[in-house]
Design goal:
The structure holds two protein chains of two kinds. Chain A is of the alpha/beta class. Chain A is built from 17 helices and 24 strands. Chain B folds into two domains: about 290 residues, no CATH class; about 80 residues, no CATH class. A two-stranded antiparallel sheet of chain B has the order 1-2. The two termini of chain B are about 20 Å apart. The chains are: A alpha/beta, B mainly alpha. Chains A and B meet through helix 10, helix 11, strand 20 and helix 13 of A and helix 2, helix 8, helix 11 and helix 12 of B.
């Protein structure tokens, strides 16, 4: 039996108001590939940030024991010094520098500050050979694909004499072929005796390479499965096994005819012209119906919604959008809004709000015509509209003159919702409407959604939280890798069914 | 506190009553920056009034001050919108110089017949200015070339064309009197002067300049009308708010604000009236300032510019055509740069190759002193105007005091830095 290289004991990490991790235990043996799986927001990344010192010692409770020594990392430097290297989901390479420059960034072979380029490039070539990347060390990062960039990251890790390699969703943005190559490389490293932690929610990959799987849910360790016990079904049950309680307001669906339809919608990546992001999607939504789109991060749900909303994402967009059976032009945001479509973004701070302006101005922004005459804004009318929506959506603020940047996440979300409610749409697309907001505010958002459906709006909810979709929608589409891979009435759906549809790409799971 | 109460359904009373004083406080807080700036201007004026032994507020000096700085303030109006929308325009000084040269060539050198009429020339020049703004704005808005670079290129290009037009280092003039009136003229006294104290006559039978007291009655009447309108509209807005059940600010605050504002305005009107009346350029400036206050505060396009500067992506996803809006902001800047150029040429009575040289920096400084944010989304028209006057009064006051031009620059730089540090400090504290 190999010895334990890493042990994390009773790790508890709290953020203001949220317990992100609660007594998490993780034990990794030398020379194994240990997978950590869990839903989005389960706490996987937080755990790895604790391990790598991004959250320094003292900001969490519990012990980290690495190679028999208790460690108190004050920053990434400390953990890297010990040989723990983490490769993040978002790559941390400088695009306009070469491969060699990136690999030795901050760690150059130099004398008196003068870089010895020959030494750097020779070492780079050796490292690139190890990861199987055939590129000139002088090639700029920006000129190689994401898959190769991932390999450069790994080469960079190897340059630091890594003992424990942590990969956070390494294949999230890779093609099938690149993913396979990466996994093969991991297995090769394992043969050479390296230990790795693989964070992933692609269960087929986990199944293929992992020796052990630790499942995390709601910030707790659920169980650690040994190789012989690993199966997709077992992992799925463990990942989602929580009960639905009354976290959702009751509603009586009153569903009418089809209002909104999208046919054969197809979109290519805005930068990589050959990448087909959305591959021929058909969906429809009825009057008074709440339709969910389930899927994992990177499934293309946001890209789909934004490409429909005034071509705010992607290139070479083809397909048809129909409102009440008639094709409509959604080629610009203002046209989409005129036709009664509203998109409430998943990223309210970047795409939803003017954070340096107050609530009143934010609420009326998408429908200034509604508070003005001949382009002159009627101050009083605007104020009463803002106060009206503040009451309707229960925005908690001292007045409508409070800056939106100073509001809590839940109240910010209500401001964005108010903005689109005031635009009076017929079709409302809500992208992750409850991300990063507390339970109480979530309930209020659900109540608003239920009320809108009762008023006869057609509503699309994109969410990564499956219980939420099961709790508030009438029908669920499952999306994966730019395709609809399943459709089911919410009444028949379960988290297992959705998860199966995602991981197996099957339309109708048993 | 009311905001921390349970999320249970709130009654109207529970929600509205405790908030009234809060609205007043927040209204005061948001306006504090503006009031503070005006107070700073007054303090600076009083300071120079003492250090120049009373010269600053002399009617003739006030007229000079307005005529010397009006072009900065006119261009600052456009620059405010540029900066609020998150951009910068370095070309305004060069564009102003070029337009001045163009106007002079059209009026004096080129045989254009009826097209060399000052009014026609002015209109053509404003259109050319708009076209220049559109040409620069096109690259900024539709091709996302940074405005700093596009307008830096514009700064070089139009200064070059300006000098080339004037044929090397020479100046072109003199310009017709009708044109010069734009800068150095005063409004005609249609009502007729009122002599309170007859001027002293010297032994040679000539009147001594500056003696006696004759008031320019048209100026007085215009000033009174403006002050009454200011008070009336203020009251009307208040009444409208109250009718809708809202309260803007405490009545005493409103009264004090209106009285102080009116008293200051009337004092300045009196000073102008006791000299030669209201400078034409002050009237032009006043009309433009009112227009831009209205556009930024009340019109949808103004609101959209602020939203775009605050968060361009969010604005775009709210249906705002940000590209077209950016283009329009630069067209506006071009027209106002052209007007600035005409005012400079009219004041000098000729076009010179160095006209407006470096003035882009004064214009930008005025906007930042006035509280605009370099990140975009924040800034007020009145702030930029007061910022422009602060720069102008300091120029004027230090010149009268005999401070060396070199040191004047140092002081202006320190004031700009101080004002922005004050702003950032205040924001971080909040």
């Amino acid at each position: 039996m190999a010895s334990t290289i890493l042990e994390m004991r009773d790790i508890t990490k709290t953020f203001p108001g949220v317990k992100a991790l609660s007594n998490v235990n993780l034990s990794v043996e030398e020379g194994e590939i240990h997978a950590v799986v869990g839903e989005n927001g389960a706490g996987k990344s937080t755990l790895m940030k604790v391990l790598s010192g991004v959250y320094p010692t003292g900001t969490y409770d519990g012990q980290i024991i690495f190679q028999g020594q208790e460690c108190h990392f004050k920053g990434i430097h400390d953990s890297e010094h010990k040989g723990i290297v983490i490769i993040h989901q978002e790559l941390a390479l400088v695009p306009m520098l070469s491969i060699a420059e990136n690999i030795f960034l901050g760690n150059e072979h130099a004398k008196f500050g003068i870089i010895d380029w020959d030494a750097n490039e020779a070492r780079t070539s050796a490292l690139l050979k190890k990861v199987g990347l055939k590129e000139d060390p002088k090639t700029l990062i920006t000129n190689i694909g994401v898959g190769k960039q991932q390999l450069v990251e790994i080469a960079k890790a190897l340059s630091k004499e890594v003992k424990l390699l942590i990969l956070d969703e390494p294949t999230a943005s890779l093609s099938e072929k690149d993913s396979q190559a990466l996994l093969d490389l991991l297995l090769e490293f394992k043969r050479q005796g390296m230990t790795s932690i693989l964070i992933s929610h692609k269960l087929n990959e986990v199944n293929r390479v992992a020796d052990k799987v630790t499942v995390i849910r709601d910030g707790r360790t659920i169980e650690t499965l040994a190789k012989k016990d690993i199966s997709e079904d077992r992992i799925i049950t463990s990942m989602v096994g929580r009960s639905l309680d009354d976290r959702y307001p009751p509603r009586e669906p009153d569903i009418g005819e089809v209002v909104f339809e999208v046919k054969n919608w197809s979109v290519y990546h805005p930068l990589h012209a050959e990448r087909h992001v959305i591959k021929g999607i058909d969906i429809n939504v009825r009057k008074g119906e709440v339709v969910g789109i389930a899927g994992l991060m990177g499934a293309g749900r946001t890209e789909f919604a934004m490409s429909m909303f005034g071509r705010s994402y992607g290139r070479r967009i083809t397909g048809e959008v129909l409102l009440k059976g008639k094709p409509i032009d959604v080629s610009s945001v203002s046209k989409a809004v005129e036709h009664g479509i509203a998109y409430v973004t998943e990223d309210r701070k970047t795409y939803g709000l003017n954070l340096i302006d107050h609530i009143k101005h934010n609420i009326t922004l998408a429908n200034l015509g509604g508070v003005s005459r001949h382009s002159v804004i009627d101050d009083m009318r605007e104020l009463s509209v803002a106060n009206d929506y503040r009451k309707k959506t229960n925005i908690r603020a001292s007045s409508v003159y409070q800056m939106t940047g100073n509001l809590s996440g839940g109240n910010q979300q209500k401001v964005v919702l108010s903005k689109w409610l005031f635009a009076d749409p017929e079709v409302l697309i809500l992208d992750e409407p409850t991300r990063g907001i507390d339970v109480g505010a979530k309930y209020e958002i659900y109540t608003i959604i239920a009320r809108l459906a009762a008023e006869g709006k057609a509503i699309v909810v994109i969410s990564s939280e499956m219980p939420e979709l099961l709790g508030i929608t009438d029908r669920i589409y499952v999306m994966n890798e730019g395709r609809i891979v399943g459709e089911m009435p919410a009444a028949d759906a379960s988290q297992e069914k959705i998860m199966r549809a995602i991981v197996r790409g099957e339309g109708k799971a048993a | 506190m009311s905001t921390e109460s349970a999320p249970a359904p709130q009654s109207k009373v529970a929600e509205d009553v405790p908030q009234r004083p809060r609205i007043a406080v927040s209204a005061l807080a948001t306006n504090l920056r503006e009031y503070g700036l005006i107070l700073a201007l007054i303090a600076i004026m009083v300071f120079f009034q003492f250090t120049t032994s009373g010269t600053l507020f002399k009617p003739v000096n006030l007229s000079n001050l307005v005529q010397q700085n009006s072009f900065i303030i006119v261009m600052a109006l456009g620059m405010l919108l540029v900066i609020v929308s998150g951009h910068i325009d370095l070309s305004v000084g060069s564009v102003a110089g070029f337009i001045g040269a163009l106007a002079a060539m059209m009026m004096v050198i080129w045989p254009l017949g009826p097209f060399s009429n000052p009014l026609v020339v002015s209109i053509i020049c404003l259109i050319v200015g708009g076209a220049i703004g559109a040409a620069q704005g096109y690259w900024i808005a539709y091709h996302r070339i940074p405005s700093f670079i596009v307008t830096l290129a514009g700064m070089l290009i139009f200064r070059g064309i300006c000098q080339a037009l004037l044929g090397g280092g020479s100046s072109v003039g003199p310009l017709p009197d009708g044109f010069k009136a734009l800068s150095s003229g005063f409004i005609p006294d249609v009502i007729g002067p009122l002599t309170l104290i007859p001027p002293t006559v010297n032994a040679a039978g000539k009147t001594i300049m500056g003696s006696g007291l004759t008031l320019h009655m048209t100026t007085i009447v215009l000033g009174l009308i403006a002050v009454l309108a200011y008070a009336y509209f203020g009251l009307r807005t208040r009444r409208k708010r109250e009718r809708h059940g809202y309260e803007a600010e405490p009545f005493t605050l409103f009264v004090i604000k209106t009285l102080v504002g009116s008293a200051l305005a009337l004092f300045l009107v009196y000073q102008f009236a006791s000299y030669r009346g209201l400078p034409v350029v002050l009237l032009v400036m006043g009309v433009l300032i009112s227009l831009f206050v209205f556009v930024t505060k009340r019109m949808t396009i103004g609101r959209r510019i602020y939203a775009m500067g605050g968060n361009a992506k969010a604005a775009q996803l709210s249906g705002i055509k940000t590209e077209r809006l950016t283009l329009m902001v630069f067209v506006n800047m071009g027209v106002l740069s052209a007007l600035g150029g005409l005012i400079i040429a009219a004041r000098l009575g000729q076009a010179v190759p160095a006209a407006g040289l470096g003035s882009e920096l004064d214009v930008i400084a005025a906007v930042f002193i006035g509280g605009a944010s370099a990140m975009g989304g924040v800034g007020q028209v009145i702030g930029a105007v007061v910022g422009g006057f602060i720069m102008g009064v300091m120029n004027n006051g230090m010149s009268i005091m005999g401070v060396n031009v070199d040191w004047q620059q140092v002081v202006k730089g320190l004031v700009l830095l101080g004002a922005v540090i004050f702003d950032v400090y205040n924001k971080n504290k909040a």
